[in-house]
Amino acid sequence: MPRKPRETFEQRKRRAAAVFRRLKAAYPEARCALDHSSPLELLVATILSAQCTDARVNLVTPQLFAKYKTAADYARSPRGQLEREIRSTGFFNAKARSIRAACAAIAAEHGGRVPDTMEALLPLPGVGRKTANVVLGNAFGKDEGFVVDTHVGRLSRRLGFTRQTDPVKIELDLNALVPKGRRTLGAHLLIFHGRRICAARKPLCGECPVHPLCPKIGV
After folding, report:
1. Radius of gyration over alpha carbons of the chain, in Å?
2. Catalytic residue check, 169
3. Helix 129-139 / helix 183-196 crossing angle, nearest 10 deg
4. d(CA 158, CA 160)
5. At residue 212, what are phi and psi to the nearest 5 degrees?
6. Quick one: which of 45, 66, 209, 217 could link to 34 by a disulfide (CB 3.0–4.6 Å)?
7. 111 φ/ψ sector (left φ>0, alpha ψ -120 to 50, else beta)
8. Is-contact 143 183, C-beta < 8 A?
9. What is the pLDDT along the chain (219 residues), one digit of tens a residue?
10. Of 54, 95, 130, 180, which is the active-site residue?
């Protein structure tokens, strides 16, 4: 049997555009799943979401946001208190340290306002590219890059958009395929699809809206 020609970058780029068009039609409600009303609230919620479901975070944050109104409030929270309030999100000691330290830096170095650039966000304790992209894209409307969580990483490999496993390298590959202005929504679409159809162990390929466009790598 003749070998199938290897997909060129331009072909992959066109296929990616078609994939995201289909996903957008399938999930018109796709959005950030973390409830928030300010950049600070989203930053805190995103730190809490590490190794935790968004649903669990959304159960914890209403009382948290009602109590802590400013970055300085988090930074001054007594040791043990914040830990108890976020305990159910897991890894609460590390998360509390990150929240206090990040908020202390925001209060001291940024006038109490969450910065709105990648360069200023990354030096904050507990903030990596994933968290920074979440905040930039959803709180500030700045479509810098892809949020790469477990769903985005898994689906981007399964779809043949990347061969990488490192989140930063995955983001670079996705950024090359998807132009600015579509990356924040693109990540939400992959996350929605990963949760509803394209599961890790038993993807529902028969119900998949991008089935004809997927090479099903690893399935």
Report:
1. 19
2. no
3. 110
4. 5
5. -70, -20
6. 45
7. left
8. yes
9. 455 678 999 999 999 999 999 999 999 999 999 999 999 999 999 999 999 999 999 999 999 999 999 999 999 999 999 999 999 999 999 999 999 999 999 999 999 999 999 999 999 999 999 999 999 999 999 998 999 999 999 999 999 999 999 999 999 999 999 999 999 999 999 999 999 999 999 999 999 999 999 999 988
10. 130
DSSP of the chain? -PPPPPPPHHHHHHHHHHHHHHHHHH-TT----S--SSHHHHHHHHHHTTTS-HHHHHHHHHHHHHH--SHHHHHTPPTTHHHHHTGGGS-HHHHHHHHHHHHHHHHHHSTTS---SHHHHTTSTT--HHHHHHHHHHHS----S----HHHHHHHHHTTS----SHHHHHHHHHHHS-TTSHHHHHHHHHHHHHHT--SSS--GGG-TTGGG---TT-
Could you tell me how many residues make up the chain?
219
Query: Of the listed 73, 143, 149, 216, which one is catalytic?
Result: 149
